[in-house]
Amino acid sequence: MAGCLMQLRRLCGPVLQAAEQLQSSTTRRLYTTQLQPHVQLTSLLQLQQVSAGSVVCSSSSSSNSSTFVAAHSAATQWHRSICTSCCCNSSAGQQAAGSSSGLQHADFPAGVPVASQATPAPPAAAEALGSTPSSSSSSSSSSSSARQQLRSSLDKKEAAKFAALADKWWDTTGGPFAPLHALNAARVAFLRSSLCGLRGLQQQQAQPLRGLRVLDVGCGGGLLSEAVARLGAQVHGIDVSDEGVAAAAAHAAGDPLLAERIRYQKTTLEQLLASPGAAASYDVVMASEVIEHVKQPGQFLCDLAAAAAPGGQVFITTLNRTPAAYGLAIVAAEYLLRFVPAGTHDWHKFITPQELAMMGADAGLRLELLSGMSLQPGSGQFSLGQDTSINYAAMLSKTSSA
Amino acid sequence: MLIRRSFAALASSEVYDVAIVGAGMVGAAVAALLRSNAFTADMRIAIIDQQPPPMELTVSQYPDMRVSTITPANMQLLQQTGAWQELAQLAPTFQHMQVWEHAGSGFISWQASDIGHPHMGCVVENRLLQAALLRAAKAGSSSSSSSSEGCLDFICSGTVKALRLPGSGSQASVPPLAGSTTGGTTGSTAGSTTGGTGGSTGGSTSGSLAELQLADGSSLHCRLVVAADGARSRVREMAGLRTVGWSYNQRGLVASVATAEPSDTAWQRFLPTGPLALLPVRGGFSNVVWTVPPEMARQLEGLSSSQFADAVNDALQPDPATFSSSSSSSAGTPSAFRSGIAPLDAAAAAAASALQQLGGPLGGAVLGQLLNPGGALGFGGEAGQGSYWRRPPLVEGWVGSSPKSFPLQLQHSGRYVAPRLALVGDAAHSIHPMAGQGVNLGLGDAAALAETLAHARELGRDLGDLALLQSRYEAPRQRANMTMIAALEVLWRGFGVQAGLAGAARSAGLGLLNGVGPVKNRIMQYAMGLTQ
């Protein structure tokens, strides 16, 4: 996820300059801080295009439908071969989701000092976070009390460390997560527009998602969670990374509105689903830049569907399995530029939109809307469009039969 | 931690989305524009000023002497906010503009019809514009409540005593907030590697809110501070943002005057001491804006109504020797007053060298932009209809109160934004009032900032995010404002002050410009805000 995006950024920037910088710099931080992210998204015009369907392919009516149908049988075959059991045992699923989130943070800047002072050795936060009652995952429990508990369990040094981490996650002007910030506006625009369309919400307002319960699987530092909370939703962000969750919580604590609307929890999707009241309790389930790291994407989609309420939506962003994505995300970034460790991404695990549709159908999810997210050369900004060959976003609805 | 602890007691209903410091025209425009956009209409907004601002459109017998020229583009902006409806009757438009020389016969005149517009702008009293904008901002918002609808609170409890912004590396000069930093720091203030946590007490700074402490001891938390507190902005100073600028050692003298006949023209004459403008205002009166040396300002301020009229008429009416044949304001086409093309080469060379010296590359770019909109120019003397010198109306004396003057300076802030802070209007840039552009630049700031915030809210972005403010507000506004500042400097240095070669060149230059329709129209379209 982040790795891919960073790679894309880097590649689309002045390549020679990038190579020079890479040679001269030993840390990724040095490099990334020189990147200037300017997220400019989507004007209303583009949003309207999305809602009007001109950049969207749905299974029923779109310019891509022929491709879509043609890919159907092949995709089904592929799907059968890799997703051996869609309602498989929980341990496999757990492993899958665990690895997903774990891998998601493989490109967390471990080499970067997160605080200038000596970092305290063992994260006591893990304990503290682990002690967060799992019952709190029920969406009716008070989020603020859970947050209070989380906060009070952290000692000062830990808090400072996570605050520094949060500053890294939230450095929109050039930090290691700048590419994610660059993507954020585009994915939020797609999410907002498609949810408004599918749920009949009024677009022309600041908080169209008011009252919706949203689960953010693999929330990381909370980039997507915060944006969705500002759009009005009550967000539950989960991640397997202690650091991600703690950084996210530290950042959201800065604004009472976010603190009231977001609850972060260190857990896996499977653990969450096993807790009482969690299944089928979310209006929207999001997994952004996660599924490409999952061992069993079919099962992962089943779990996402299980968390969604009847009639709810599942939102996915990921990388397509195309030569273009291979060239940029794997060959160039991992092997030529050696920007992220080789093996961060496994191209074979990338998923095409068609496969996503097939696996989604098996999981009881209907693909409703699809949009490419393309990095604009020069500007460094992602925008929504028809080109799904590298990054794309998809909105699926839980079918009644599921 | 400390910051977070202090927010633990804070409910989201106590947090303002935007706190606007300064209820002047530009601050009011920000509030009104936010209120009129669907994406920002439900914001919680605070307007902070020392005194309750005017909220009524009370019209006195004579127009106020403090007026502003509003471009057509910004008139549309006012319409968008709903403020224009109340102002329309009180802000007369003008259809002509004439600029001419003290010596020589150089002049340039514009007509709105030349560029297909019904008018070239309007002149409005500052107080009325401010009140109309505040009324528009207030309309449709609840007073102060916990409702989910937007609210607008006026906080008139004096000055802002202290400002706390999330760390930006420029916080050293900010006075600490008493009582809010109790407890030990974690030492990260000293050891922090980035400016990002420099001013903090060890907590996360990137997401924390801005805090304003007011003179009455209360404090206020918000997601974005908008500094609209004028050229001597205290907020800007507290944020440690530096300005560059200089004083002109001149004063701007203003007065409301009665004239022999009403006028629909904005008149401006370049005098050796500085430019003098006569603008049509409400009720058939006019407004004088006269740039003069300090000692002359003192003299003029002390004149009786009729003495002042004589002084203005002396300065504005044609020198009989030069304009002898121009006895009527509309008459014929005395060739002396047609645009002179003769000293073309000399004028062009002088203008170019003046730009090189004074404006640098920026000034050159400006003139290039003005003079070369779409390629080659035809120097064919294509003077449009009505480009004849006309005589301004006779001034009969000041009305209402006696003339007042204020110092002139140019000041520009190097940065317009910091984390959770945006400067607008004179707080970001104060300029020579020569072309009446001051408030127009400020309204442009307000529009750009309001659009930035609407974009942020549409996509769930943080209103105070530095990258957002830099890319969508600061960068475009600095480009626009620097362009105008440079253009005005060029006009001022090149045409406004007697300086040997420039003095000779400008006379020819004005005639040259007047003769070239496309160039002239291009300048006016730019000044009217119709092009960038």
Automatic annotation (TrEMBL), chain A:
Assigned GO CC terms: extrinsic component of mitochondrial inner membrane
MF-aspect GO terms: 3-demethylubiquinol 3-O-methyltransferase activity; 3-demethylubiquinone 3-O-methyltransferase activity; metal ion binding; polyprenyldihydroxybenzoate methyltransferase activity
Listed EC numbers: 2.1.1.64, 2.1.1.-, 2.1.1.114
Biological or metabolic pathway of the protein: Cofactor biosynthesis; ubiquinone biosynthesis
Keywords assigned: Magnesium, Membrane, Metal-binding, Methyltransferase, Mitochondrion, Mitochondrion inner membrane, S-adenosyl-L-methionine, Transferase, Ubiquinone biosynthesis
KW Acetylation (keyword) present: no
Record field: catalytic activity: a 3,4-dihydroxy-5-(all-trans-polyprenyl)benzoate + S-adenosyl-L-methionine = a 4-hydroxy-3-methoxy-5-(all-trans-polyprenyl)benzoate + S-adenosyl-L-homocysteine + H(+); a 3-demethylubiquinol + S-adenosyl-L-methionine = a ubiquinol + S-adenosyl-L-homocysteine + H(+); a 3-demethylubiquinone + S-adenosyl-L-methionine = a ubiquinone + S-adenosyl-L-homocysteine
Family matches, as Pfam families: Methyltransf_23
Region (Disordered): 113-150
InterPro entries named in the record: SAM-dependent_MTases_sf (IPR029063), UbiG_MeTrfase (IPR010233)
Positions annotated to bind Mg(2+): E289, E292, H293
CDD domains: AdoMet_MTases
Major place of residence: mitochondrion
Broad class of enzyme this protein falls into: transferase
SUPFAM superfamilies in the record: S-adenosyl-L-methionine-dependent methyltransferases
Bias type Low complexity, positions: 113-145
GO biological process, one term: methylation
Annotated binding of S-adenosyl-L-methionine, by residue: R187, G218, D239, S288
Cofactor(s) annotated in UniProt: Mg(2+)
Subunit structure comment from the entry: Component of a multi-subunit COQ enzyme complex.
NCBIfam families: UbiG
Sequence similarity: Belongs to the class I-like SAM-binding methyltransferase superfamily. UbiG/COQ3 family.
UniProt-listed HAMAP family: UbiG
Name used for this protein in its record: Ubiquinone biosynthesis O-methyltransferase, mitochondrial
Source organism of the structure: Tetradesmus obliquus (Green alga)
From TrEMBL, chain B:
Residue segments, region Disordered: 167-208
Pathway where this protein functions: Cofactor biosynthesis; ubiquinone biosynthesis
GO MF, one annotated term: 4-hydroxy-3-all-trans-polyprenylbenzoate oxygenase activity
E.C. number(s) listed in UniProt: 1.14.15.45, 1.14.15.46
The keyword Mitochondrion is assigned to this record: yes
UniProt xrefs under Pfam families: FAD_binding_3
Catalysed reaction, written as an equation: a 2-methoxy-6-(all-trans-polyprenyl)phenol + 2 reduced [2Fe-2S]-[ferredoxin] + O2 + 2 H(+) = a 2-methoxy-6-(all-trans-polyprenyl)benzene-1,4-diol + 2 oxidized [2Fe-2S]-[ferredoxin] + H2O; a 4-hydroxy-3-(all-trans-polyprenyl)benzoate + 2 reduced [2Fe-2S]-[ferredoxin] + O2 + 2 H(+) = a 3,4-dihydroxy-5-(all-trans-polyprenyl)benzoate + 2 oxidized [2Fe-2S]-[ferredoxin] + H2O
Superkingdom of the source species: Eukaryota
Domain (FAD-binding) ranges: 218-329, 413-456
Membrane topology, as annotated: Peripheral membrane protein
Compositional bias per record (Gly residues), positions renumbered to this chain: 193-205
UniProt entry keywords in alphabetical sequence: FAD, Flavoprotein, Membrane, Mitochondrion, Mitochondrion inner membrane, Monooxygenase, Oxidoreductase, Ubiquinone biosynthesis
Major subcellular location class: mitochondrion
Cofactor(s) required, per the database record: FAD
GO biological process: carotene biosynthetic process; xanthophyll biosynthetic process
Enzyme class: oxidoreductase
Subcellular location, record wording: Mitochondrion inner membrane
Cellular-component GO terms for this entry: extrinsic component of mitochondrial inner membrane
Record flagged with keyword Plastid: no
Listed HAMAP family: COQ6_monooxygenase
Family, similarity comment: Belongs to the UbiH/COQ6 family.
Task performed by this protein: FAD-dependent monooxygenase required for two non-consecutive steps during ubiquinone biosynthesis. Required for the C5-ring hydroxylation during ubiquinone biosynthesis by catalyzing the hydroxylation of 4-hydroxy-3-(all-trans-polyprenyl)benzoic acid to 3,4-dihydroxy-5-(all-trans-polyprenyl)benzoic acid. Also acts downstream of coq4, for the C1-hydroxylation during ubiquinone biosynthesis by catalyzing the hydroxylation of 2-methoxy-6-(all-trans-polyprenyl)phenol to 2-methoxy-6-(all-trans-polyprenyl)benzene-1,4-diol.
Quaternary state and interactors: Component of a multi-subunit COQ enzyme complex.
NCBIfam families: Ubi-OHases
Protein name as catalogued: Ubiquinone biosynthesis monooxygenase COQ6, mitochondrial
Organism: Tetradesmus obliquus (Green alga)
Gene: COQ6
